[in-house]
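Office hours follow-up: a student asked to see two folded examples consecutively, so here they are.
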Amino acid sequence: MKKTYRLEDLDCANCAAKMEAAVAKLDGVKSCSVSYMTQKMVVETESDDQTELMRQVQKLCRRIEPDCVIRV
């Protein structure tokens, strides 16, 4: 399942690249793309239920960019 999320307060392209690489390594993630220019994250997963996975993604992204908020 592929889902697009809006990112708020993503401050730099380097942080976006770090987030993309870190999320792509999580179990259950097929692919991840983070765009600094459009402030969007596209996550493709193996299952339809992304609830638990998105908790991990948010925790991971806050470690990299503390002010960034992920919205549906």
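And the second, which I mentioned at the end of office hours:
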Amino acid sequence: MDSNKEHDLINTAPFVKMLADRYVEGSGAEKSDPLVSPLFASNEDTRRMPPTWLSIAGCDMLRDHGERMAEKLKGAGVEVVVEVHEGQQHVMEFMAGNAPESKGSIERIAEWVRRKTGQ
């Protein structure tokens, strides 16, 4: 989370930690539980994951997490598509309707899902 912190206009390490703490609060789960974060899943469990599309914003402080997840999935033989959107911020697809990059990303994801589901 340090390598991109100067470029991330949305997140800070304390903010992300607070969100993670809130996510597990009251559940009894640890942040290292694979049901909380698939980065901690065993190789056996990772192999059973479905085909996955990862859309990663280039200026997101969580970029490394997405790239690590992609490598974990690839290493387990899971089909994974990774798009890194240079110059973009976390959840850049939220800008759909205002940014052509977002619209294009959503269109590519939708087409991929249609091919996977036969829709």
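Two things to take away from it. The first strand starts at residue 52 and ends at 57. The chain has one domain: 13-117.
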